[in-house]
Amino acid sequence: MMRRFYPYGVLSSLILVQGFTVLNRGGYYRLYWIPAAILLGLLLAGFLVGLNRGWLSPRFNLNTDLPLLGFLGWAAVSLISSVNREETLFEVTRLVLLASVYFQVAYALEQDRMKRALGYSLLGIGVFDAVYGLFGFISGRALFLVPWVDLPSSQYYVTGTFFNHNHFAGLMEMEIFLGLGLVLAVRPQGRPRSEFWAQRLFLSLPSGIMILALVLSLSRGGWASFLFGFFFFLALVWWHTHPSWSRILAFSLLMVIGISLFLFRVNREPLHRRLATLEAYYQQPEEITANARLSIWKSAVGMIKDHPWTGTGWGTFRSVYPSYRRDRVFHGIVFAHNDYLQIAAGMGLPGLGLFLLFLVMLFREGFRGIKSRDLNFFSLALPGVLAGLFTLLVHELVDFNLMLPANALLFFSLAGMVAGRGRELP
Questions:
Q1: Residue-wise over 174-211: b if at least 16 C-beta within 10 A, else e?
Q2: Where are the domains of the chain?
Q3: Which of 192, 248, 363, 403 has the most CB atoms less than 10 A away?
Q4: What is the Cα–Cα distance from 241 to 235, expressed in whole angstroms?
Q5: What pTM does this model have?
Q6: How far apart are CA 380 and CA 421, in angstroms?
Q7: Which of 163, 136, 127, 165 lies closest to 148 in space, CA to CA?
Q8: What is the pLDDT of residues 104-115, one digit of tens each?
Q9: Can you tell me the distance from the alpha carbon of 49 to that of 53, in angstroms, rounded to the nearest whole number?
Q10: What is the pLDDT of residues 228-264, one digit of tens each?
């Protein structure tokens, strides 16, 4: 009986913890993180018990599992040389709990319909956050009153339930392409052609709403990453299904026209101001240092040079940064604004290497799935899932979305879908 009902418990818990962290400002602050950590801890304990008792019979994908386990293990090794062991212990525990979602999705949700339910539920959470943010942006008031969820004090951009519009953009990037992947997974199954395309068009609406929210988030990193991700997505779609270029062009134009029509109905002044900053950066690239990022990156490189093997300890960037601080950059820096530098500074170069190896093997697995042209649900959705992962990884060159539990949970959920592809039971 437990073998039968265990996956349903995992599914409902994963949906609950994703929704909770999104609603609670991304779940970063400890007050918001602790309830999510308790639930994730129970899930991990249940997963280990399930393996021991035979509730699960997974065929592990060692190509992706071993690099991820190595990465988590090296994070624990960084505790040895950590400058703040208490902080490192907390952050390593958080990382292990977040990454455990990868194994839950890949191996506990074995049936195709379970992954389908998770995909649509995650999409629903993203659409909710986009609608919440858009409603506040347009009306100037909350869609509904929740004491712990504040709209930004300035209604110049959309942030949903997040503190920071860049982190909201990170969530939207993954959700948009997840939605487009779910559209690709819709099959004719003997229905009339008109009904099939009508269903696909209807399922495209959530992604359209989230693209609009991404545009109005005014996140420059989000905009640039989405463009890279969109071209990557089109390339994967062409490789997977070989559609005519006319269909791809029509799809792209339809999305652009829809968003443009909406933008004509809202206050465009903030958007114009944000675009003007891009022009200024193009004319004077050195002005990027005014945003502090280049100076922070140089400080992070200094940390890596001094601690190349085990880093300063995972989660200690805030503690170490003042010693490497550059002029004109304030003290309260918590993250490197580049997750790759963040990992190398906290865990050393071996930690970064293991993380990159995990990504390489994960995308290799995804490409193999696309090449196989299987007809199971998430093989069909793979172009969207991979594009969502790719887009966030591009964004991480200038931001720290993976340090935010809500975005990390979605990232590892999508990674689990890729690793568990092709293992679905009928």
A1: bbbbbbbbbbbbbeeeeeeeeeeeeebeebbebbbbbb
A2: 2-242+358-419
A3: 403
A4: 10
A5: 0.90
A6: 10
A7: 163
A8: 999 998 778 898
A9: 6
A10: 999 899 889 888 776 655 455 556 656 665 655 555 5
